[in-house]
Amino acid sequence: MFSIIQAAGWPIWPLLLASIVAVALIIERLVALRHSKVVPPGLLQRVVTEFRKSGASVEMVANLEAHSPLGRVLGAGLRNVGSSREIMKEAIEEAGSVVSHDLERYLTTLGTIASISPLMGLFGTVVGMIEIFASQTPGGGNPVQLAHGISVALYNTGFGLLIAIPSMIFWRHFRALVDGFVIEMQRQAVRMVEVLHGERKS
Prior knowledge:
The protein is an all-alpha fold. The protein has helices spanning about 1-10, 10-30, 35-40, 45-55, 60-65, 70-80, 85-105, 105-135, 145-195; strands at about 135, 140. The protein has a two-stranded antiparallel sheet with strand order 1-2. Strand 1 (about 135) and strand 2 (about 140) form a beta hairpin.
């Protein structure tokens, strides 16, 4: 591996840094965007049951908001349970916007890496081509410099694509996950509002 890095030349170092950042972000998002962590199953039913038993106490709402992103959305509704249905929905929508922003954390960086990695690889290719042309002299070519230039061009192009492809795949996957979570949280929050206002039984 070290010999490949040496053959690829200095343009490979920004690509290596981008690959490390991409892997770290992918692992972090895989852990953070688990369904059981974002939208815990059965949370809405537990909230409704507890509310019917003891109401929306300050401690209960605080614990709910600290529980999960879905808990933050439901908690915003419970804080305004004494208000009209419209005010509850507005509070839920505001909390949902903040939660959605938090769920999308680091996705912009991952998408940027997916976009610029091929360009960084192309830059390495250009550097390699410059070295190839520089090796050509009227009296003949320098085989060592020619071989190095070819290595720089090919390794950087390949490594740039190697970073970009999985980064793009995971970026699209995480975006789809976040969109699905937001829709699910909105659905459950509306259901809670309807239940608490007596429009639904459960």
